UniProtKB/TrEMBL annotation:
Residues 49-338 form the Dihydroorotate dehydrogenase catalytic domain. This is Dihydroorotate dehydrogenase (quinone). The keyword Cell membrane applies. The active site is at residue 180. The gene is pyrD. The lineage of its organism: Bacteria, Pseudomonadati, Bacteroidota, Sphingobacteriia, Sphingobacteriales. Monomer.
Length: 340
Protein backbone atom coordinates (compact mmCIF):
# COMPACT_ATOMS: atom_id res chain seq x y z
CA UNK A 1 0.00 0.00 0.00
CA UNK A 2 2.71 2.48 1.00
CA UNK A 3 4.60 1.82 -2.26
CA UNK A 4 1.50 3.02 -4.12
CA UNK A 5 1.00 6.26 -2.21
CA UNK A 6 4.65 7.17 -1.59
CA UNK A 7 5.13 8.71 -5.07
CA UNK A 8 2.14 10.97 -4.36
CA UNK A 9 3.54 12.01 -0.96
CA UNK A 10 6.93 12.69 -2.53
CA UNK A 11 5.39 15.26 -4.89
CA UNK A 12 4.98 17.63 -1.95
CA UNK A 13 7.36 19.59 0.28
CA UNK A 14 8.82 17.12 2.83
CA UNK A 15 8.01 19.21 5.89
CA UNK A 16 4.45 19.99 4.78
CA UNK A 17 3.66 16.37 3.95
CA UNK A 18 5.14 15.25 7.28
CA UNK A 19 2.67 17.38 9.22
CA UNK A 20 -0.19 16.43 6.88
CA UNK A 21 0.43 12.72 7.34
CA UNK A 22 0.98 12.81 11.11
CA UNK A 23 -2.06 15.06 11.58
CA UNK A 24 -4.16 12.74 9.42
CA UNK A 25 -2.99 9.72 11.40
CA UNK A 26 -4.01 11.40 14.63
CA UNK A 27 -7.47 12.27 13.33
CA UNK A 28 -8.03 8.89 11.65
CA UNK A 29 -7.22 6.96 14.80
CA UNK A 30 -10.10 8.68 16.55
CA UNK A 31 -12.35 6.42 14.45
CA UNK A 32 -13.49 3.52 16.59
CA UNK A 33 -11.42 0.40 16.07
CA UNK A 34 -8.84 1.88 13.70
CA UNK A 35 -6.08 2.21 16.30
CA UNK A 36 -6.57 -1.43 17.31
CA UNK A 37 -6.51 -2.48 13.67
CA UNK A 38 -3.24 -0.64 12.99
CA UNK A 39 -1.72 -2.21 16.08
CA UNK A 40 -2.75 -5.65 14.86
CA UNK A 41 -1.44 -5.07 11.33
CA UNK A 42 1.85 -3.37 12.23
CA UNK A 43 2.64 -4.66 15.71
CA UNK A 44 4.84 -7.68 16.36
CA UNK A 45 5.58 -9.16 19.77
CA UNK A 46 7.98 -11.94 20.67
CA UNK A 47 9.67 -12.73 24.00
CA UNK A 48 13.12 -12.79 22.35
CA UNK A 49 12.75 -9.14 21.35
CA UNK A 50 12.55 -7.82 24.90
CA UNK A 51 15.53 -5.88 26.13
CA UNK A 52 16.51 -4.60 29.58
CA UNK A 53 18.84 -1.64 29.47
CA UNK A 54 19.89 0.99 32.02
CA UNK A 55 17.10 -0.17 34.31
CA UNK A 56 14.36 0.07 31.69
CA UNK A 57 12.43 -2.76 30.04
CA UNK A 58 11.91 -2.34 26.29
CA UNK A 59 9.33 -4.60 24.62
CA UNK A 60 11.51 -4.59 21.51
CA UNK A 61 14.77 -2.95 20.38
CA UNK A 62 13.41 -0.70 17.59
CA UNK A 63 12.64 2.93 18.42
CA UNK A 64 11.64 6.12 16.65
CA UNK A 65 14.45 8.67 16.62
CA UNK A 66 14.13 12.24 17.85
CA UNK A 67 12.95 14.84 15.36
CA UNK A 68 9.91 12.96 14.06
CA UNK A 69 7.64 14.03 16.93
CA UNK A 70 9.37 17.05 18.44
CA UNK A 71 6.44 18.16 20.61
CA UNK A 72 5.08 14.78 21.71
CA UNK A 73 1.85 15.25 19.75
CA UNK A 74 1.59 11.83 18.09
CA UNK A 75 3.09 9.36 20.57
CA UNK A 76 0.04 7.16 21.06
CA UNK A 77 -0.66 7.04 17.32
CA UNK A 78 2.94 6.27 16.37
CA UNK A 79 3.18 3.58 19.05
CA UNK A 80 0.63 1.54 17.08
CA UNK A 81 3.26 0.97 14.37
CA UNK A 82 5.18 -1.37 16.64
CA UNK A 83 7.90 0.80 18.16
CA UNK A 84 9.48 -0.38 21.41
CA UNK A 85 10.32 3.19 22.36
CA UNK A 86 9.85 6.72 21.06
CA UNK A 87 12.19 9.65 21.53
CA UNK A 88 10.61 13.11 21.49
CA UNK A 89 12.32 16.46 20.88
CA UNK A 90 14.78 17.94 20.38
CA UNK A 91 13.15 20.36 22.80
CA UNK A 92 14.51 23.68 24.09
CA UNK A 93 13.53 25.73 27.16
CA UNK A 94 11.75 28.40 25.10
CA UNK A 95 9.70 27.90 21.94
CA UNK A 96 11.54 28.72 18.75
CA UNK A 97 10.54 28.68 15.07
CA UNK A 98 13.74 27.10 13.77
CA UNK A 99 15.47 28.06 10.56
CA UNK A 100 13.83 29.64 7.54
CA UNK A 101 11.82 27.40 5.19
CA UNK A 102 12.37 25.40 3.06
CA UNK A 103 14.59 23.47 5.46
CA UNK A 104 14.08 19.81 4.56
CA UNK A 105 15.00 18.20 1.24
CA UNK A 106 14.63 14.71 -0.24
CA UNK A 107 17.59 13.13 -1.99
CA UNK A 108 15.65 10.31 -3.62
CA UNK A 109 18.63 8.96 -5.57
CA UNK A 110 20.37 8.43 -2.22
CA UNK A 111 17.33 7.43 -0.10
CA UNK A 112 18.30 10.35 2.11
CA UNK A 113 17.09 13.60 3.61
CA UNK A 114 18.88 16.87 4.25
CA UNK A 115 17.44 18.91 7.09
CA UNK A 116 18.35 22.20 8.69
CA UNK A 117 15.30 22.45 10.92
CA UNK A 118 17.14 24.25 13.73
CA UNK A 119 15.40 22.80 16.81
CA UNK A 120 11.97 24.14 15.86
CA UNK A 121 9.68 23.25 18.77
CA UNK A 122 6.97 24.62 21.07
CA UNK A 123 9.17 24.70 24.16
CA UNK A 124 9.68 22.36 27.07
CA UNK A 125 6.55 23.38 29.00
CA UNK A 126 4.28 22.38 26.10
CA UNK A 127 6.07 19.05 25.69
CA UNK A 128 5.93 18.29 29.41
CA UNK A 129 2.17 18.93 29.51
CA UNK A 130 1.66 16.64 26.51
CA UNK A 131 3.64 13.84 28.12
CA UNK A 132 1.69 14.10 31.35
CA UNK A 133 -1.44 12.92 29.54
CA UNK A 134 0.03 10.21 27.29
CA UNK A 135 -1.28 6.64 27.72
CA UNK A 136 1.98 4.69 27.63
CA UNK A 137 0.90 1.03 27.81
CA UNK A 138 4.49 -0.02 28.50
CA UNK A 139 6.01 2.25 25.86
CA UNK A 140 9.39 3.77 26.82
CA UNK A 141 9.65 7.52 26.10
CA UNK A 142 12.93 9.40 25.80
CA UNK A 143 13.40 13.15 25.96
CA UNK A 144 15.98 14.71 23.64
CA UNK A 145 17.09 18.09 25.00
CA UNK A 146 18.99 21.00 23.48
CA UNK A 147 19.72 24.68 23.86
CA UNK A 148 17.95 27.68 22.37
CA UNK A 149 19.64 29.23 19.33
CA UNK A 150 20.21 32.57 21.09
CA UNK A 151 21.75 31.04 24.21
CA UNK A 152 25.54 31.49 24.12
CA UNK A 153 27.56 28.30 24.52
CA UNK A 154 28.99 29.56 27.83
CA UNK A 155 25.42 29.51 29.22
CA UNK A 156 24.24 26.38 27.39
CA UNK A 157 24.32 24.28 30.55
CA UNK A 158 21.46 26.36 31.97
CA UNK A 159 19.23 25.44 29.01
CA UNK A 160 19.97 21.75 29.48
CA UNK A 161 19.19 22.07 33.20
CA UNK A 162 15.82 23.73 32.49
CA UNK A 163 14.79 20.99 30.08
CA UNK A 164 16.08 18.24 32.37
CA UNK A 165 14.25 19.52 35.44
CA UNK A 166 10.97 20.12 33.58
CA UNK A 167 10.90 16.69 31.92
CA UNK A 168 12.30 14.64 34.78
CA UNK A 169 8.95 13.23 35.89
CA UNK A 170 7.54 12.58 32.40
CA UNK A 171 10.30 10.81 30.43
CA UNK A 172 12.05 7.49 31.00
CA UNK A 173 15.48 8.59 29.76
CA UNK A 174 17.25 11.73 28.54
CA UNK A 175 19.38 12.43 25.50
CA UNK A 176 21.76 15.40 25.50
CA UNK A 177 21.94 16.70 21.94
CA UNK A 178 25.12 18.65 21.21
CA UNK A 179 25.60 17.16 17.75
CA UNK A 180 23.01 18.77 15.49
CA UNK A 181 24.72 20.71 12.69
CA UNK A 182 21.79 23.13 12.40
CA UNK A 183 22.24 25.31 15.49
CA UNK A 184 25.21 27.69 15.17
CA UNK A 185 28.26 26.54 17.17
CA UNK A 186 26.31 23.76 18.91
CA UNK A 187 28.83 21.09 17.89
CA UNK A 188 31.55 23.00 19.73
CA UNK A 189 29.88 21.66 22.88
CA UNK A 190 31.12 18.18 21.88
CA UNK A 191 34.62 19.27 22.88
CA UNK A 192 35.86 17.55 25.99
CA UNK A 193 35.67 20.24 28.68
CA UNK A 194 32.30 21.88 27.84
CA UNK A 195 30.74 18.46 27.37
CA UNK A 196 32.00 17.17 30.70
CA UNK A 197 30.66 20.30 32.37
CA UNK A 198 27.15 19.79 30.95
CA UNK A 199 27.01 16.07 31.72
CA UNK A 200 28.47 16.37 35.22
CA UNK A 201 26.03 19.16 36.04
CA UNK A 202 23.06 17.07 34.92
CA UNK A 203 24.34 14.04 36.80
CA UNK A 204 24.57 16.09 39.99
CA UNK A 205 20.86 16.92 39.62
CA UNK A 206 19.96 13.38 38.60
CA UNK A 207 18.34 12.20 41.81
CA UNK A 208 14.84 13.10 42.88
CA UNK A 209 12.95 11.24 45.59
CA UNK A 210 15.52 8.46 45.35
CA UNK A 211 15.01 8.14 41.60
CA UNK A 212 17.52 8.84 38.83
CA UNK A 213 17.01 8.79 35.06
CA UNK A 214 19.40 7.41 32.43
CA UNK A 215 21.24 10.18 30.57
CA UNK A 216 22.60 9.43 27.10
CA UNK A 217 24.71 11.54 24.77
CA UNK A 218 23.95 11.83 21.04
CA UNK A 219 27.08 12.26 18.95
CA UNK A 220 27.87 13.22 15.37
CA UNK A 221 29.16 10.72 12.80
CA UNK A 222 31.83 13.22 11.77
CA UNK A 223 34.00 12.82 14.89
CA UNK A 224 37.59 11.63 14.47
CA UNK A 225 38.94 8.55 16.26
CA UNK A 226 40.70 10.76 18.81
CA UNK A 227 37.44 12.59 19.48
CA UNK A 228 35.69 9.24 19.89
CA UNK A 229 38.39 8.28 22.40
CA UNK A 230 37.50 11.45 24.29
CA UNK A 231 33.81 10.44 24.20
CA UNK A 232 34.64 7.07 25.76
CA UNK A 233 36.62 8.80 28.49
CA UNK A 234 33.81 11.30 29.11
CA UNK A 235 31.18 8.55 29.41
CA UNK A 236 33.30 6.72 31.95
CA UNK A 237 34.16 9.86 33.93
CA UNK A 238 30.63 11.28 34.08
CA UNK A 239 29.00 7.85 34.48
CA UNK A 240 26.20 8.64 32.02
CA UNK A 241 24.14 5.68 30.84
CA UNK A 242 25.30 5.45 27.22
CA UNK A 243 25.61 6.87 23.72
CA UNK A 244 23.33 7.39 20.72
CA UNK A 245 25.35 7.01 17.54
CA UNK A 246 24.79 8.91 15.36
CA UNK A 247 23.19 12.20 14.40
CA UNK A 248 23.14 13.50 10.81
CA UNK A 249 26.36 14.09 8.86
CA UNK A 250 27.74 17.22 7.23
CA UNK A 251 29.63 15.07 4.72
CA UNK A 252 28.44 14.98 1.10
CA UNK A 253 30.74 12.15 -0.01
CA UNK A 254 29.26 9.78 -2.56
CA UNK A 255 25.87 11.47 -2.94
CA UNK A 256 24.17 10.89 -6.30
CA UNK A 257 21.56 13.65 -6.04
CA UNK A 258 21.84 16.77 -8.22
CA UNK A 259 24.22 19.44 -6.93
CA UNK A 260 21.31 21.83 -6.42
CA UNK A 261 19.99 19.45 -3.76
CA UNK A 262 23.04 17.87 -2.18
CA UNK A 263 24.70 21.24 -1.64
CA UNK A 264 21.83 22.52 0.50
CA UNK A 265 23.02 23.37 4.01
CA UNK A 266 22.09 20.94 6.76
CA UNK A 267 22.65 17.40 7.99
CA UNK A 268 22.26 14.31 5.81
CA UNK A 269 20.30 11.34 7.16
CA UNK A 270 19.32 8.03 5.61
CA UNK A 271 21.36 5.48 3.68
CA UNK A 272 24.45 7.68 3.11
CA UNK A 273 25.15 7.88 6.86
CA UNK A 274 24.55 4.17 7.50
CA UNK A 275 28.09 2.88 6.99
CA UNK A 276 29.75 5.62 9.05
CA UNK A 277 27.22 5.26 11.84
CA UNK A 278 28.00 1.54 12.05
CA UNK A 279 31.74 2.27 12.06
CA UNK A 280 31.30 4.66 14.99
CA UNK A 281 29.25 2.08 16.90
CA UNK A 282 31.86 -0.61 16.32
CA UNK A 283 34.74 1.67 17.32
CA UNK A 284 33.06 2.77 20.56
CA UNK A 285 32.00 -0.76 21.44
CA UNK A 286 35.38 -2.39 20.79
CA UNK A 287 37.57 0.43 22.15
CA UNK A 288 35.55 0.64 25.38
CA UNK A 289 35.27 -3.15 25.70
CA UNK A 290 31.47 -2.77 25.63
CA UNK A 291 31.61 -0.64 28.77
CA UNK A 292 28.30 1.15 28.05
CA UNK A 293 25.17 0.65 25.94
CA UNK A 294 24.89 2.22 22.49
CA UNK A 295 21.71 3.03 20.59
CA UNK A 296 22.41 2.80 16.87
CA UNK A 297 20.74 5.16 14.43
CA UNK A 298 21.52 6.18 10.86
CA UNK A 299 20.63 4.56 7.56
CA UNK A 300 18.40 1.75 8.84
CA UNK A 301 16.10 0.88 5.94
CA UNK A 302 15.82 -2.87 6.44
CA UNK A 303 16.19 -5.72 8.90
CA UNK A 304 19.70 -6.31 7.50
CA UNK A 305 20.68 -2.71 8.34
CA UNK A 306 19.38 -3.09 11.89
CA UNK A 307 21.25 -6.38 12.36
CA UNK A 308 24.50 -4.73 11.23
CA UNK A 309 24.13 -2.07 13.91
CA UNK A 310 23.36 -4.65 16.59
CA UNK A 311 26.24 -6.90 15.54
CA UNK A 312 28.57 -3.87 15.60
CA UNK A 313 27.73 -3.35 19.28
CA UNK A 314 24.43 -1.49 19.50
CA UNK A 315 21.91 -2.68 22.09
CA UNK A 316 18.94 -0.87 20.51
CA UNK A 317 18.32 0.88 17.20
CA UNK A 318 16.25 3.84 16.02
CA UNK A 319 14.74 4.75 12.65
CA UNK A 320 13.58 8.00 11.09
CA UNK A 321 14.50 8.49 7.42
CA UNK A 322 14.08 4.76 6.76
CA UNK A 323 10.55 5.03 8.18
CA UNK A 324 9.85 7.82 5.67
CA UNK A 325 11.25 5.93 2.68
CA UNK A 326 10.20 2.37 3.54
CA UNK A 327 6.84 3.09 5.17
CA UNK A 328 5.05 2.05 8.36
CA UNK A 329 5.69 -1.66 7.83
CA UNK A 330 9.44 -1.18 8.37
CA UNK A 331 9.36 -1.77 12.13
CA UNK A 332 7.53 -5.09 11.81
CA UNK A 333 9.87 -6.24 9.03
CA UNK A 334 12.89 -5.46 11.20
CA UNK A 335 11.44 -7.23 14.23
CA UNK A 336 10.48 -10.35 12.28
CA UNK A 337 13.95 -10.38 10.75
CA UNK A 338 15.55 -10.20 14.18
CA UNK A 339 13.47 -13.11 15.45
CA UNK A 340 14.39 -15.21 12.42
Amino acid sequence: MYKLIKPLFFQFDPEKIHYFVTGSLKNAQKIWGLAALLKKVYGFDHPSLERELFGLKFKNPVGLAAGFDKNGEYIEELANFGFGFIEVGTVTPLPQPGNDKPRMFRLQEDAALINRMGFNNKGVDVLARKLESVKRNGLIIGGNIGKNKNTPNEEAVNDYIKCFDRLFNVVDYFVVNVSSPNTPNLRALQEKEPLKHILNTLQQRNLKDGLSKPILLKIAPDLTDSQLDDIIEIVQETKIAGIIATNTTISRDGLQAPASLKNEMGGVSGKPVGKRSTEVIRYLSEKSNKAFPIIGVGGIHSSKDAKEKLEAGASLVQVYTGFVYEGPGLVKRILKGLVR
